[in-house]
Amino acid sequence: MDKRYSTIIFVPHARAKFRKLKVSHRFLFSILSLVTSSLCLSTFFSVQYFTSLTQTHELSKLRNENRELQTANEQFSKSVESLRTQLHTVEDRTRKLAIIAGITTLDESSQGGTGGVRNDDNNNPYRDDVDKMTFRSHRLQNDLNVVEEKFVAQSQLLSSTPSIAPVRGILTDGFGGRSDPFTGEPGQHNAVDISSAVGQAVRAPADGIVVKAEWANGYGNVIYISHGYGYSTRYGHLSSYAVRPGSRVKRGEVIGYVGSTGRSTGPHLHYEVRINNQPVNPLAYILNAF
After folding, report:
1. Is the pLDDT of residue 196 over 50?
2. How far apart are the first and last CA of the chain?
3. Which of 73, 91, 106 is the C-terminal boundary of a domain?
4. Alpha helices (H) in the chain, listed in sequence order
5. What is the CATH number of the domain that holds 208?
6. What are the pLDDT digits (tens) for 53-70?
7. Last residue in a domain, options 47, 73, 99
8. Does 147 fall in a domain?
């Protein structure tokens, strides 16, 4: 057994007696070992404690992030469902507008179907929904373009179709067979005669372009208007013009004034409506009364 010792001298203060403590090396080694072990254990537990604090903080942070992601996911899910509902509503309204416009080619079932699986690793649960809504929105945009074009065409057709009386007055002669007012011989009257005061305004019954505003045998001062879509109109026996050839006119716009020029027995308007240059009964194109 090791019998070596060490002497530890204590000096309390300058005038005090020295004190000696005789300690074996084995005891010193034990003390040092104990201190070293205590320091190591303290260091270990300190590291563990702070590591645990850090992990607890990270875990709490992850839990908060997870809750935020769950909330965001729920909100996104509600947004997707709301968009799906809105898209369905707009699709229904588009189909109804298409029916009103006389379009029957918007039925998606008649277009056939295709599909497939994405070639990627994206596991987003809403990816398919977003893809479907994107496809539906593109198709809806195309459908709306078709409906809009149809309505524009119908609007242009309606604005180009004669629909109002060109002048206020009394109907004195109708369309069809009649006796010539000058000779009494039977003949064909391709217009209606509307008696009115000289100078009474004559208005365009539809949008169009003035083709002629000149004197013509029988008609006297006459105006020809082309309305498009095969429609044209003529206005005879005018006293004067308010437009010139090439002028664009709108329904209700004044184009001339009632007179009795040409082959006429008195002040009135000779009014013709033609479709593809074939005379038709103008009364079918007067939706308001004289």
Report:
1. yes
2. 142
3. 73
4. 25-101, 127-160
5. 2.70.70.10
6. 888 888 888 888 888 888
7. 73
8. no
Write out pLDDT tens, residues 225-254.
Answer: 999 999 999 999 999 999 999 999 999 999
Regarding whether 281 and 174 lie in a shared domain, the answer is yes
Kindly report the CA angle at 223 between 218 and 227, in degrees rounded to 5?
Answer: 130
Exposure class string for 159-188: b at 16+ Cβ within 10 A, else e: ebbbeebbbbbebeeebeeeeeeeeeeeee
Asked whether residue 110 carries a pLDDT value surpassing 50, the answer given is no
Q: Which of 15-29, 101-115, 121-135, 275-289 has the lowest mean pLDDT?
A: 101-115
Residue type, 163: S
- Residue-number span of the structural domain to which 50 is assigned: 5-73
DSSP string, 195-260: E--TT-EEE-SS-EEEEEEEEETTTEEEEEEEEETTEEEEEEEEEEES--TT-EE-TT-EEEEEB-
Residue 114 domain-assigned?
Answer: no
169/6 Cα distance (integer angstroms): 143
Distance of CA 1 to the CA centre of its chain: 101
